[in-house]
Specification:
By secondary structure, this protein is α/β, with parallel strands linked by helices. It has helices spanning about 30-40, 40-45, 80-85, 100-115, 125-130, 160-170, 185-195, 210, 220-230, and strands at about 70-75, 90-95, 120, 135-145, 170-180, 200, 235-240. The chain has a single domain, classed as Vaccinia Virus protein VP39 (Rossmann fold). A seven-stranded mixed sheet has the order 3-2-1-4-5-7-6, sandwiched between helices. The longest helix has 14 residues, at about 100-115. Mean pLDDT is about 90; it is low at about 1-20.
Amino acid sequence: MARRDLEPESDPRAGPGRRAFYGRRQGRRLRPGLKALLDELLPQIAVSLPHDGGKLDPATLFDGRRAGYALEIGFGAGEHLAWQAARHPEIGFLGAEYFVNGVAGLLRRIQDRGLDNVRIYHGDARDLLDALPERSLDRAYILFPDPWPKARHHKRRIVQDHTLARLAQVMKDEVELRLATDDMDYLRWMLERLLRNPEFEWLARGPRDWRERPEDWPQTRYESKAVDQGRRPVYLRFRRRPREP
């Protein structure tokens, strides 16, 4: 979810072969219960990337093969991901989030709801995308990412041509990529890059298709606050076009 309180701060681990990540890794101090979840629950469901540069089969992350696998990039406090996981126990959900407080929020929801179909990658989602094999995802979400409103920071936005190209590789044919934003400049940015990508087709047929949230798309606390502050969210649904034979 979008976090406008983040200050530009590159990842100190970035170097040759590493990407730079911008934004604070942690916000307010965590309560003891949330810290305990990070120490005890996260190691049980954390996603580790192959050290040899190999691919990570999502099926190996779950007990028993799932009917499909979905990825949410930047899950914020985890409200949407936990909601989807609770309603689709047959699906294995991967969540990528760099913000410690967001990871802790999702862990609390996993514990409270007894979810066993969620795995967390605590790091840069682009690294996870690079590790996934082709045609491994049945759905992907990028909901209310940080808009980085200053022009000099636009390169930090997660929706970039190269990110969409990689998503097209790891998504199966005919499956959905869902995006949302309450920032109209970022909306234009998203549409410009998605509409010029031949691998994706916009499913909207009229204004209601992007102005109204589908029933299987829960409202989050961030979204509710945006509406209260007079910002109107937009909901985008794109389909991964079938590959040519």
